[in-house]
Amino acid sequence: MYRLDVTETFAGLSLPGHLHTQESLNFASTFQFCGSDVLLVTYPKSGTTWMQEILTLIYSDGDPRPAKTTPNWARTPWLEHIHFKELLQETEGPRLLTTHMPPQVLAASLRKAKPKVIHLVRNPKDVAVSFYHFCRMANFFPDPGSFDEFLLAFLDGTVHYGSWFEHTKGWLNCKEELDVFYITYEELHQDLEGSVERLSAFLGHPLPPGQMDSIRQHCSFVSMSNNQMVNGALIPHEIMDPSKSQFMRKGIVGDWRNHFSPLQTELFKKKFQQEMGGRCLGFMD
Ligand code: A3P
Asked: What is the pTM for the complete model shown?
């Protein structure tokens, strides 16, 4: 019933059949955006849920009620998910949408409608660590094996959702032709307030005075860890097993240092240089 062992292949990527079918993926790839849409683009484990919470709070003008009463997947639905069609509601405000798809799947429709795109990127070493622990707990992902085995698959781009490098380069290449706001997980950590100010200016939705405190409070790691609408508590344990890891796991920058051996760090560095050239250099350390 849950299709936990099913893998779908689409646009050269392997994807969990629990979340996607060929029909849902085709629906995403032919989706007609409108200019007022806001599309959050991430590679998995890059802080997607955090940004979904921030967007919810910006558009509720700091009112935490929507974030506390509606699951994130219904407030900011994933285009490519099985239930997207039902979740897509006619709202008065802009539609807040999320995707993990690479740009080639969505580019034609995005070019036409030019919705606002938020591209959130995280240090790939921390992504790999977060992804590894997620795969240990999520029974709709293949068993990741040891961290070393998972890391090699991550570097080869054979994990579900494909290569971080291809995904990131692909979206960076769209910067000129689309209306893109680029931000990193690390910037959110370093300066949440400044990041939210820049983001709300980009969205043309300035926050009412005094609401920044509400965002700071409700989007903190501790608050989100306690918010059942985002912390994985709504998902049955046979699908996501909290005894193996937590969805809101650590929420820190640099956890890779606790996982990578010197050899793995060197391997990663080589691959990063080869793939990214001079781009995203902040992630070299
Ligand atoms: P860790 O596994 O490193 O803790 P996604 O939402 O894309 O799946 O990303 C999940 C990662 O974002 C997890 O990283 C999670 O803990 C982190 N995260 C979620 N909310 C956060 C917050 N408010 N502050 C910091 N990190 C957060």
From this structure: 0.97
